[in-house]
Design goal:
This protein has about 350 residues and is mainly beta. Helices cover about 10% and strands about 45% of the residues. It is globular.
Amino acid sequence: MYSRISRIIIISVALTFVFSSFSVDSIRADDQPLVAYSQGVLQSDGTILYSVLIASGQQPLTNVTVSSTIPAEAVSAAAVIAPANAVLVATPEKNTVQWQVSKLDAATIVGPFTYRVTFPTDFKKPPASTDATVIWTEPSSGSVKADQLTGSLMPFVESGDIQITSLGTIDAQGNAQPVFVGDTGIAVYVPDKAVSDPITLHFTRLPFTDQTTPKSSAETWWCALVKVESDAPVTLTKPILIGLPTRQILTPGMTVQLLTRNTASEDWQPLETAQGMAISTVGNLAVVMITGKIPTFLAAGVEVKERQISSLPVAVVSAATGFAGNNIKFSSTGMSFAGKTR
């Protein structure tokens, strides 16, 4: 087991690679009163959960209203979840869903504000994000439009392969970078010399059913289930990081709980060589760290109480995800972690 100091070093260095490489714009929350981000997550039943995340700057804000426009093609919509201190003030029947927060503390990230949208069965291009606006009245009135993903959402594929060599995961220039596992939405970061011989890892995203979902604790909300197989036995000599796309947008910086399943007894249990890390800064990637042998099954989740609060100081988010100061990244590349875009 790695010590607390080693864990901090890994968070502050390795996780920076994972998250920074999946973002194209850095938005400093302390340069503006507030920044916001909107993204959709495609569900297994064909509906989409649209979410808004907001982060305040160096001053508290009052009478904050978060509004998101229902896509014109929608046939139905319903609010799903919002921070504990948010009040739903406009229902989707009015083509807009709206929440109000009486006070937003300084340097705080809040969200997600989430609602579910159903589209016609023959509608093939659901937007990756929806228009969202945040307004406030004090210390001086202001408003911002949420940053968005472009294009439409496509489902992730169920499984994919990635070959890993002694060079680790690198880009075309030979720089250490995380890489996607095909079109699964799963991301992997492997440092150099973590493996001695080339191996191929096969990832399978598992559905949430009574048979697959851990029953260890009602205090955990499970957000990702994955099976990992290798074409040859492997023991890692350095920690690797795996980013699992979550089934809903979550509050960035939340601690990820992790269990693995005993293939013989099928019981879910903690494992010293597998640790949950943090939810990414765009809220849709649960990062886990693996040392030694790679477990066959990974179940990632977050505490139910923490999810219900849906609020964390920016400094906590920055520390958890490897960013210094109040840097919050609310932009991503053309691929969403909650469904591909096209």
